[in-house]
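Justification of computing resources. Each target in the renewal requires a structure prediction run like the one illustrated here; the chain below, 338 residues long, is used simply to show the kind of job we budget for.
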Amino acid sequence: MIGFDLGSEAGRERARLAMENFGIAFFESNMATGMVVLSPNAFTMFGLPVPPRMPVDRTGFWECYHPDDLEPARATFAADLRGERNRDSYCERVRIIRQTDRAIRHIEFLGRMFGPPGARTHIVGMLRDVTDEAEAEQRRSLLVREVNHRANNTLSVVQSLLRLTQAADVPDYKRRLEQRILSLARTQTLVDQAAQQPAAFALLIASELAAYRDHLTLDADDVPDLLPGAVQPVAMILYEMATNAAKHGALSVAGGEVRIEARQEDAAVVLRWAEQGGAPVTAPPSRKGTGMAVIQSQIRRLGGTQRLDWTPDGLRAELRFPLASWAGPASHTDAAKS
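Resulting C-alpha cells:
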C-alpha cells in the first residue's frame, strides 16, 4: 500500500494495529482487473459475509447504503472517477444499514485515485465507522439550535412581561417588572436543582412559570412527585406551552389566563392546559414551529400522548404520560393495586 509495505512484517503489524485499535479498514480498487481487495473488517462494518471476490462496483456495499444516501453517493463516486471536481482524493461519509442488526451506521471513506480523470487505474484508501462522531455532531447541532431557540423565546417572554405588567405609576411598574424578570432568571436554576431529586409538580410550575403566576390557576393536588429524569422534559413542555401562549395566546394580553389541571388517572398522569381571554382563535397554526416540535419530542421521551384543540377561547391541550415514566415503577404498582 502507498506509504508503507504491507508485505513486510512491520507493515502488517501497522495495519493490524490500525484495524484493531482504530477500527480502520483498508481497500485497494484495481480498475484494470475490475476487482477490489479489502481487509475483512470492512465487511464486518456492513454486516456482510466476506465474499470470495469483490468487484469494483462493490455491489454488496451499495445495497447496504441508506436509501437517502445511495444515489448522491453513487453520483459523487462517478463524478470523482471522471475528474469533474478537479481532485484526485476520494472522500465521502454515508449512512448504511448494517445487515446483521439493521442498525444505521455512519461510514467514512478516504482514498486517493491514480490515473488520469476518466481513466483511473487504482483507488487506494481506508474506511471507518464514524457513527459516534456523527451522532456527537448531531447532538451539538441540536444543542445549538435549542439554545438559540430558547434565547429567542426568552426575548418573547420578556416582551410579554412588558405587556402583562400593570402598575399605578412608573416606579411601581419598574418594581413589578424587575421582580418578574428576576423570577424568570431564577427559573433554570430551580429546575436544575429539582432535576437532582424527585420534585413536586406544583414546585415545577412555580419555578418554570413563575413569571406568569398572576395569570395561572393550578389544580394538581393529587399528582405524584416527578422522577428526576422526568423533571426536565415536563419543564420543557411547560416552558414551550407558556412561551407559545405569551407569543400568540392567553399570556399575550393583560387579561389572559391559563388553567392547569393535573390528575392521576389509573396508570397515567393527565395534564390539561386551558387558555382563555387571549386573542380569538380561528384555526390551528398552519405550520409546526420549533416550540411545538420540542413539546412533541419531550412527550415522546416520556412515552406520552397529546391532544390539542384550538377553540375560539384559546388552546385546550390534554397530555397523558405513563405513571411509570412520571413517578417510577413503584407508583405504577401502587396504582394497579388500588
